[in-house]
Amino acid sequence: MLAQGDAATPASIRLVTPGPHDREAIAAAIRLGNAARATLGHMPFSAYDDAAAKGTLLMAYADDHAVGYALYALARRRVRLSHLCVDPPRRGRGIARLLVERISDLHRDHLGIAARCRRDYRLGEMWIRLGFAQRGERPGRGSSGEPLIDWWRDHDHPNLLSADSDTVLVRAAIDMNVVRDLTEAGRTNADESKALLAPHLVGLLEIVRTAALNTEIDRLDSDLRAQCTDRVQTFPSVRSDPAARAHIIDELQRHTRPLDPANPRDTQDLLDLQHVGDAIAANLNVLVTNDQELIRVYREVAERHGLRIMRPADVVIHIDELAHAEAYRPASLLDTGYVERRLRSGENQTIEALRTHLSGERPRELQSTVNRLAVSGAQRMGIYQPTGELVAAYATTESSGVLRVPLLRVANQPLADTLARQLLFRLRQSARDGALPMIQITDPHLSPQARLAAVDDGFQETDGTLYGYAIAAVGPAAEVERAAISAARASGLPEPAPLRSGMPAVAAAELERVWWPAKIIDSELPTYLIPIRQPFSTQLLGVPASIFPRHDALGISREHVYYRSPGGTRPQAPARLLWYMSKGGTTTQQPAAIIACSQLDAVVTAPPDDLYDRFQHLGVWDRNTVHGIARDGYAQALRFTNTEIFPRPVSRQTFRRLALAHGGPAAPPQQPTRIAATLFAAIYQEGRAR
């Protein structure tokens, strides 16, 4: 098979699919084929007639002269290209490309185009320029045994090996040294490159083949060529517009010329240039290489095009950053000015601010820990204050029913204690969401604020590890006890003391706090339905979300205060609270619903000035508003913690249905209203359902 060239597209070329009675066109194809028989091989004349009858003979004309043709067949959803021929004087003018692209356009419903060509014809670079990639090779049938190369131009239909475009966040090209690391044993960087195939990167990182990589593989003259071809079969090929690619390569050369006027010095330098150009032209965002010189020369100009050139280890270590930057922006932490996002690669120096000096942690020890956690697949998160500084970081992994926390740090700043308590609560939420009943904090250099917060949160220390229960059971004491015993046994911890039905409210509240999110339904712990208007719900609970951030200290705190008039029902602490957000006015963002559950720690009745002075940092009302709800010189504050926003608010209609089923008040509450434990359990489970 022979075809050459894909230079500038000839505007005067006309493509025609001749019919079976177009003898002149069929004869012209035969003449062109006979002239190129040395590389095309023998084709019976009847094959041309058969192709014309089936509409699989494509002719190229310049004016009225036949200058090329393609003869192919359709079988099993594939196009089998038998001949691709261009008149020798016309080669190098893009005629072969026109023929191939027209075939792709006509048969886009087929999986792709297959071709086969002898290795000794040295036409590999031509096939690659036409958008083909090596698919394998086999011994030839001739006396020389010269191998036949199988080529494939994919039509990008999904298959069993296709990555899910909804989950893949990063598409990265690799160069030849990485392919050899993945193929050959004993290479220096093999372990580093093989980390690209780590299970935790599946679905996040898709490795692709560019034309430059296919060219490098094609130039190998040993058994290694076949091995590398096999190795990259699972990596899809990407194509780019030739004109755009040429323009980009020209720009890259203009950039590098002042740095090194002699570059490219040799074939390898030229291939390095093509690797970068191909990756940019294909709109990839990462090129992976172990070639430090390639990184040095092209990193700056590549980044201007949105391409990062990185070593394999850096890609693995910083995949969170790459995925984060491509998928979503930093998330506001509890609707405050603080944000939470995955740690980025350039923050190794920034994270130094979280080093625990008191424990003797060395300067590079923390950076090494963070990198090691990334390679292992741990989720590494950072908390940033509104001015952009990193003020906290944590990492988590999941294993055998345990949420492991190998890193938990808080910077020494004004909200350090509040932030540490919030991080502990977020870890409990993560454990609950992952159905992990135990949390283990194993950071040997745990921040002092985090340690104090963990101990206050009910964590117990054994052999340098802090253990905390996260029991996601909602039921009688016996059911909660079974879940806690199972978690303790799985972690090799002593079993907790037996629980009994009807336990006092104080005991039940303490267990629900230190085993959060456990709910012990057959205890004496009461539950109250609390009405709250939407504007105050937005500020106090963060629901509905506002375009304006909440006050930082208020939003980050696990503790809050709800002011009310002391008349009517007086809630008794400790208790559970369910928040009924009432319907608002014309600016209502959400309908009335039960939106959250909290733990009531204290009820304080006092003069409004005393309440305000004591709790102003935990509530949303100003002094005048607190005075406005006072009765007989007194107002009331409900101090609550551990607010859990329901993923599915319980609508008024659903609440009414549940209340009727469990014998509770069906009308929306106008004041704190006590409800039965069974109704609480039904509402809670409805709100937690996803």
UniProtKB/TrEMBL annotation:
Domain N-acetyltransferase: 11-153
Keywords assigned: Transferase
Domain of life: Bacteria
Pfam families hit by this protein: Acetyltransf_10
Any GO MF annotation of the entry: acyltransferase activity, transferring groups other than amino-acyl groups
UniProt name for this protein: GNAT family N-acetyltransferase
Originating species: Verrucosispora sioxanthis
